[in-house]
Predict the structure.
Amino acid sequence: MVFRKEWLMASATAVITLAISLAVIRWLAPQLLGIPVDLQMVSVDEKVSPFYEAVFREKDLSSKGFLLKDPYSGIRARPLFPRRITMGPNDLLGFRNPSVPNVADVVIVGDSQTYGNNADIDQNWPAHLRTAMKDQSPIVYNMSVGGWGAVQYAYAAEKAAAFRPHLMIISFYTGNDPLESFIVAYNNEHWKEFRPDPSITSADIPRLELDTLPIRFNDGITTVFTPKTRYTSNMDHEAVETGYKIMAESARRITKANSINGIWTLFTIIPTKELVYESKILKENIDVSESYRLLVSAEKNNINNLKKEIADIPQALYIDVVNPLKKAALGSTPLYTETADGHPIANGYQVIGRTVANAIQGLMPPPKEGVYQLPITSKMSKYFLVDDNKLRVFKNADVTEKNGWDCESAPIIADRDLANLKFTGTIVEVNQNRYGPTRNKTAINER
């Protein structure tokens, strides 16, 4: 009887232990018990943040300000900001686009000069680039925020790789990028790796001087220069020199990371308004201040040095927009406002957009016409017919081959390369005159 009593107690203990163990497993590791993912509960803690609460932050959406604070980027633009004449619309990520695409052919990173202050979204330079490349119909995504500098460009470029772009364009601005880059690197411990000289402190910055220099050209164009203000980011100063070093270092890091992902990296340097009008000032022999002469001299030197740094980076390309802007400024079309604002207006943005578009035309060829295969699994592919930037999918491999195509020799294509082709339907019939290698294009377009 004693043995039987001990056996019953041991069995009861084992059952209770098993029940407790299953309960613990069910709570901590439900996947081990085969519980569907949609029935599993995740506690809100530091390890798993609630996704939708982070994306649709009420504090962001109800903010009265346009720029919001961020621990890494310092500032970011308000998500879902409405469309206005010279600002917005901002997408869910806070960038100036109608929407967030799944993939992008071209991603552009910059500050307010690239965001497009002073112009409607359809008139900033990324929009003009897209218009100039209408034959290729690229998906262009603008990841620019006013007030950003080189450190934020490197941070955004890392995230931009998720869009699997063919090209990434980083747009520096000599008007304030050097000091803004310095301030972010030396004020935020998260970015201390960008500090070329740890002995310098964030207090080592030149004093900002404000000034105005009204200018009137012979053709009636008027504007206002601020040479002392812009000279602050171009003067012979330790913080400015360090800022340009940070810009060059960010270019190296961005290019290295992109080359691993097969992304072309291009850089451009947008100059100050003062430098853009230099040739016109000299041509008309307009009397300017000493501060203006100091600015354009220092800025040209800094641009040349940064260009050399970029030229030494393997697989990095540089696009000159300085000279096209200076050439356009010689004409009678205003490129900037009549005020001291240093951002271009639509005409100025058009010069930049078209110049960049011309430089990248050959870097983004569309898929050649013919049949491509897109692997779905290790044993199955879908077959697509590309014709005149239009896309059709064959019902299956059998229909593909009966229309005259060799499935095994069909080149493999990535789904992102099909994203900007217009889908026009599924091919279910066998008709080589319409869908074969020797197809009649008139016939297929009539379909």
Q: What stands out?
A: Residues 29-33, 35-40 have pLDDT under 50 and may be disordered.
